[in-house]
Specification:
By secondary structure, the protein is an alpha+beta fold. It is built from 14 helices and 22 strands. The longest helix has 24 residues.
C-alpha cells in the first residue's frame, strides 16, 4: 500500500504542470474540490468524457467516509444504484475475491450480518474494510490517470474569483490557483459553495416552511406513550425513563451534567441551527494479533459519562452499539441507545468553523469516543455482560496505522445544504411529489440522528431529533437540486451538500447516492462545456440519454 501511495504521489508531481498555460497557471475543464466518493466518481466521469480534470482533496486521504470507516453501506434498495457507484462495489467484490486480501479470516467464514447482505452470485459486495475501499479507489485513480492533489485547503475568505456569475478560479491557502470552466463542490462541508456566494441552510427548517411533518423539533417521539415505527426507533436511541440530569441527583442547584442543553428543546415543529450528531464509525476487531485494546485517555473525566452509567442503573437493557461485521474480523461500529458514540450537541459550530476550529471539534469527538469505549469496556459501574463483550474488541492495528486505528474522517452527517434551483423535501422521499429531471435515485429511509439533549417536564434527561421513517420505494432526485440559483453562480454543481431540507437530506445522504450524484454532476458539467452554456441552461433531454448510456438508474420499476 505504501508503495502504491508513493507511486500515486509521483504521478501527481509528474502531471502537476500538464495543464499549465504560458503564465504558469493551472487550467482545467473541470475543477473538483473534495476527494470524497462523490468527487472521485465525478473525476472518473469527466476523464471518460475526455475532459481535463483535477481532483483536490483537503486531507491526506481520499474517499471520505467510504474509506473512513463507513463499511456498512446504507442504501435502502440496492437496485437504485448504477453507474460508477456500482462499479465501486463491484471493485470491492473483486478485491475480496483475491485470497491474499483475507489475512485475519477465511473468506468462507465471513457472513455479512448487516442490512446490505450480499446475495449469492451477486457481482457486487457492500461491506468492506476502510483499507479495501482505499485500495479500490487508488486503482480507479491510477487506471483513469486522474490528477490528484492532497492536503490542499481552499482559501475560504479570498479564494474564489468570479466574473459575471461564473467562478473563474479557486485559490488554496498554500497559494496554488486552479482555473476552470466548470467547478464541483464535493466536500461534506460545502466550503466552495459558500465561498462562491451560493445560498445555503444549516440546521432544521421549521415544518411550516415546506409544509413538512418530520423536519422541526419533535419531542413527542421521546414519549413512551407514542406508538408506531417512528416512536419505536426514537426510543431505541433515547434514555430510559428516570435518568436524573443533575450533577447531584435530585438537586437542580448543583447544575446539569455535561452535554445537556439548558435552554430546552424549543417549540414543537420549530426550526433551529442545530445539526444531527457526528461520530467516528470505528473499525474494530476482536482478533488478538490485530487488536489495539481501548485505553483510558489522559484527560478522562468520569462526569462526561455519568449519564451513560445512570442510564444503565435506571434500567437500560440494550447494547450501546451496532457492531456490523466487516471482512477480516473487523466491524463498522455505529451509535445505539441513549448514550453512545454520537457526541450529541457538540458539533453545532462545525459547518461554519475555521479549519483550526474544525480540527479541535474533531479531536474533542475522538477523545470523547476513546473515553466512551474505555468506560464501556472497563468501568466497574457498567453491567458485567457489557464490559465482558466490549473488552474483547479494540481498534485495528492495520487500519489508520498512524493513529492507532483511529481515523481522521469524522462522520459529517450533515453540514451546509444548498438552497438551489429546486429543494428536495419530505414529499419527494415519500413519492408524493415526483420530479422529471432525474439524475439519481434515493432509497434509504429519512434518517436523522439525535440533535440535542434536554431535561423534560418530568425532570429527566431525554434526546431529541432522531427520526427513522421508511420510504416505500426508490424515488427520483432532481438535477435542479445539484445546481445553484442562476443569479448566484452559473458554473458550479454541488452533489453532496445538495439542495434539500434537513429531513430529505437524511434520506439522500448515503455514500452510494453521493457517488451517483457526483457522476451525474460531472456529466452535466461536461455537456455544459460542450454546449458553451451555464449549468442552469442545460437541456435535460441532452443530459438524460448520456446518464442512461453510462448505466445510471433513473427510474424504479420494481414491485410497489
Amino acid at each position: 500500500m505504501r508503495i502504491l501511495i508513493f507511486f500515486l504521489s509521483s504521478i501527481i508531481l509528474f502531471t502537476s504542470n500538464s495543464c499549465q498555460n504560458e503564465s504558469g497557471q493551472n487550467k482545467y475543464d473541470l475543477v473538483i474540490y473534495g476527494g470524497t466518493s462523490a468527487g472521485i466518481a465525478a473525476a472518473i466521469q469527466a476523464k471518460r468524457m475526455g475532459k481535463s480534470v483535477i481532483l483536490i482533496e483537503q486531507s491526506a486521504r481520499i474517499g471520505g467516509l467510504t474509506t473512513g470507516g463507513l463499511g456498512q453501506t446504507d442504501i435502502g434498495n440496492k437496485a437504485a444504484i448504477g453507474g460508477i457507484s456500482r462499479e465501486f462495489y463491484e471493485g470491492i467484490k473483486t478485491y475480496y475475491n483475491n485470497p491474499d486480501n483475507w489475512k485475519w479470516q477465511k473468506k468462507e467464514n465471513y457472513l455479512d450480518g448487516g442490512q446490505t447482505r450480499t446475495e449469492k452470485q451477486e457481482n457486487s459486495m457492500w461491506t468492506f474494510e476502510p483499507s479495501a475501499a482505499l485500495s479500490v479507489y487508488e486503482d480507479f485513480i491510477k487506471k483513469e490517470n486522474i490528477e490528484l492533489v492532497l492536503n490542499k485547503k481552499l482559501d475560504r475568505t479570498n479564494g474564489v474569483t468570479k466574473n459575471g456569475g461564473k467562478i473563474t478560479s479557486i485559490k488554496m491557502l498554500s497559494g496554488e490557483v486552479y482555473h476552470g470552466k466548470m467547478f464541483i463542490d464535493a466536500t461534506y462541508e460545502g466550503d466552495l459553495m459558500a465561498a462562491a456566494g451560493v445560498g445555503y441552510a444549516i440546521g432544521r427548517e421549521p415544518n411550516e416552511m415546506y409544509k413538512e411533518t418530520m423536519n422541526g423539533v419533535n419531542t413527542k417521539l421521546t414519549d413512551t406513550t407514542m406508538t408506531g415505527h417512528l416512536a419505536h426507533n426514537a426510543m431505541n436511541h433515547n434514555f430510559v425513563d428516570g435518568v436524573d440530569p443533575y450533577i447531584l441527583k435530585g438537586d437542580s442547584t448543583s447544575g446539569l451534567l455535561p452535554y445537556i442543553d439548558s435552554d430546552g428543546p424549543g417549540e414543537e415543529g420549530a426550526g433551529d441551527k442545530k445539526v444531527q450528531a457526528y461520530c467516528f464509525r470505528m473499525c474494530l476487531t476482536d482478533h488478538p494479533e490485530n487488536r489495539v485494546p481501548f485505553e483510558k485517555p489522559e484527560n478522562y473525566n468520569e462526569q462526561d459519562y455519568e449519564l451513560l452509567l445512570r442510564n444503565y442503573e435506571a434500567g437500560e437493557e440494550g447494547f450501546p452499539w451496532i457492531n456490523s461485521k466487516m471482512p477480516n474480523r473487523k466491524t463498522d461500529t455505529n451509535n445505539r441507545t441513549g448514550f453512545s458514540t454520537d457526541f450529541i450537541g457538540q458539533n453545532y459550530d462545525y459547518p461554519e468553523a475555521t479549519y483550526e476550529e474544525r480540527e479541535q471539534i474533531i479531536e474533542r469527538h475522538r477523545q470523547y469516543q476513546k473515553g466512551l469505549m474505555w468506560t464501556l469496556a472497563y468501568h466497574p459501574r457498567m453491567p458485567e455482560h457489557i464490559r465482558e463483550e466490549v473488552s474483547k474488541w479494540g481498534t485495528s492495528k492495520d487500519e489508520f496505522e498512524s493513529q492507532d486505528g483511529w481515523q481522521q474522517q469524522l462522520y459529517i452527517r450533515e453540514a451546509r445544504r444548498m438552497i438551489g434551483e429546486y429543494v428536495m423535501t419530505q414529499y419527494n422521499c415519500e413519492g408524493l411529489e415526483v420530479v422529471e429531471d432525474v439524475v439519481g435515485m434515493g432509497a434509504y429511509g429519512m434518517d436523522s440522528h439525535n440533535i440535542q439533549r434536554y431535561v423534560n417536564a418530568e425532570g429527566f434527561v431525554k434526546n431529541e431529533g432522531n427520526v427513522e421513517a421508511h420510504v416505500k420505494e426508490p424515488y427520483p432526485i432532481s438535477y435542479r437540486s445539484l445546481i445553484p440559483k442562476k443569479e448566484e453562480c452559473t458554473n458550479l454543481l454541488v452533489p453532496v451538500c445538495l439542495s434539500a431540507t434537513h429531513i430529505a437530506f437524511g434520506s439522500i445522504r448515503m455514500e452510494p447516492v453521493f457517488m451517483v450524484l457526483g457522476q451525474s454532476a460531472a456529466t452535466a458539467a461536461c455537456l455544459a462545456i460542450d454546449e458553451s452554456i451555464s449549468v442552469q441552461e442545460l437541456d435535460y433531454q441532452l443530459l438524460k440519454p448520456k446518464l442512461l448510456g453510462d448505466l445510471q438508474r433513473l427510474s424504479w420499476v420494481g414491485p410497489k
